Protein: Isoprenyl transferase
Amino acid sequence: MKIPEFAYSFYERRLQRGLSPERIPHHIGVMVDGNRRWAKLAGAPTSHGHQAGADKIHEFLGWCEELGVDVVTLYMLSTDNMGRPQEEIEQLLDIIANTLDRLGESNRVRVQPVGALELLPEDLAGKLADLAAQTAEIDGVHVNVAVGYGGRREIVDAVKELLLNSAEKGKSLEQLAAELTDEHISSFLYTRGQQDPDLVIRTSGEQRLSGFLMWQSAYSEFYFCEALWPDFRRVEFLRALRDFGRRQRRFGS
Structure:
């Protein structure tokens, strides 16, 4: 039996009233999973699922802005996914490019690329770099766009940059090894300078990280949702925030 829309609206208002402003996550990571399955269930081309997922991203960022979330990291394209059939990847990259254009036109979010840009087509990598510069001074939700992203790749890239940086300063491997801490590696990650995610949400019922923010999510809270990403509703988001607000964070203790 389908629940009437007014009932959802009533439930949403009730959930939102129960949220404590001081318990809203500062940084949320989102694994936007389920676009392909959504298209298959709808009997539509895969590209329709990716487009529906892209449309949901804009809606989701509006919810975050409304509720006071400061930073959002969107897992849009992994290094593993870049091995999918060429036609699908080309369509997906076009949709991502269009999504970036819409983010820039909104003039409401600050965009930062998170990933190995050298793996992307030159025009998309350039668009990401230009958008980061264009939106750098916008006082809105900080949106990390994880495209061409892999958690292991990020850690390897961070270590490489750390080693090169140390070599430029004339440090030996022995000196680096003696002083190396986790903070040193954190300072060379794609998200350097940012607070680690408080909450990581994954849609589509899958319960694994799939390489997403492997280093940064060491003490994150996780919320797994059965809804496919295009079907992810505001009420599900509010449930995730309610669940987060009820948890006692221990940070490894």
Q: What stands out?
A: The two ends are 45 Å apart (CA to CA). The chain has a mean pLDDT of 94.
